[in-house]
Amino acid sequence: xxxxxxxxxxxxxxxxxxxxxxxxxxxxxxxxxxxxxxxxxxxxxxxxxxxxxxxxxxxxxxxxxxxxxxxxxxxxxxxxxxxxxxxxxxxxxxxxxxxxxxxxxxxxxxxxxxxxxxxxxxxxxxxxxxxxxxxxxxxxxxxxxxxxxxxxxxxxxxxxxxxxxxxxxxxxxxxxxxxxxxxxxxxxxxxxxxxxxxxxxxxxxxxxxxxxxxxxxxxxxxxxxxxxxxxxxxxxxxxxxxxxxxx
Length: 247
Fold this sequence. Notes:
The protein is mainly α and 247 residues long. It is built from ten helices and two strands, in the order αααββααααααα. It has a two-stranded antiparallel ribbon with strand order 1-2. Helix 2 crosses helix 3, helix 6 packs antiparallel against helix 7 and helix 7 runs antiparallel to helix 8.
């Protein structure tokens, strides 16, 4: 998606903050200096700073200027913040926080999905699984279909708050799926595990569905820990999703 001047200014400032160009507690340059540096008007800078305040990256007040906040204040459900962190470099702490979050949210959501999923929900999740199979066999975008599978499960729980969370979780979950997909044989071996989750939802068996999704999550956790131990380069979420080669 092509961003306008405002969006590009927010990106440039956000990336600089997340990358540590401005220290926590330090003031970022005043509007005239930033405007000159970025080649935009003071009004554009002012509106960009408002966006960064909403994302929890900075705070402003009389006589103190605009100061950088520590990362515990950042909105980690904001896709821009996730993209900036990816560009700066994903950290082990970020990835482990993600795994903790998945273990809390997804099993509970899948239990509800096994009780509440509609025929339309099931059809959407089936289609996502078919897309995953096709990517493994013929080559293609496995990660996007994997993401649709899990988002479909979250929507199928029929809880408005969890459905809203599924949108916010998208960028976070893609991180995990990119890592799992990069493991040799990982996508192919995970198909049966995804099938087990969906079969339990179709069978209206919440306990079995929860157990099956935990197997998936724990497998992803092992993949991430192995990649972190190997010090391999982590994926960047501002790039297109990885594409599998035909089997």
